[in-house]
Specification:
With 133 residues, the chain is mainly alpha-helical. The chain contains four helices and three strands, in the order ααβααββ.
Length: 133
């Protein structure tokens, strides 16, 4: 996860955190910028997965931007979404990710950066941000 927003689990990229949670090797509640705050858990890690994919496709976002499945709560994260993120983290977790696989995932509208994202920046509060017109 970018920017070291992992709380007490050390520094891991989103894909590694996601895979550890899915394998039962890590407590999802320990991932986030503040282990005692509201921005933590599976939904928080899920929100970081598209950010990593975006960065690998040259679409740099704020570390606080979220969109897509699971952007607000664990309850919103359906099993189909979890399986999609399993696939994304399999590809992005490679030491040298295959460019074709990255671009293929990026073409999926569920993963691609949308026109408007939700920013969870603590200094401005949660708000909608329009990225392009």
């Amino acid at each position: 996860m970018r920017g070291g927003r992992l709380g007490t689990c050390g520094r891991r990229v989103a894909g590694a955190a996601w895979r550890a949670i899915r394998a039962g090797e890590a407590d999802a509640g320990r991932f986030g910028p503040d282990p005692g705050g509201p921005l933590r858990g599976t939904w928080f890690v899920a929100g970081e997965v598209p950010l990593d994919l975006a960065a690998l496709n040259k679409s740099e976002m704020s570390q606080w931007d979220v969109w897509g499945a699971g952007a607000d709560s664990d309850a919103e994260l359906a099993e189909a979404d979890r399986l999609l993120y399993d696939e994304v983290t399999r590809v992005t977790g490679e030491r040298l990710p295959a460019f074709g696989a990255l671009r293929g995932l990026w073409e999926d509208e569920r993963l691609r950066t949308p026109r408007t994202v939700r920013s969870l920046a603590p200094y401005t509060g949660a708000r909608e941000v329009t990225l392009r017109g």
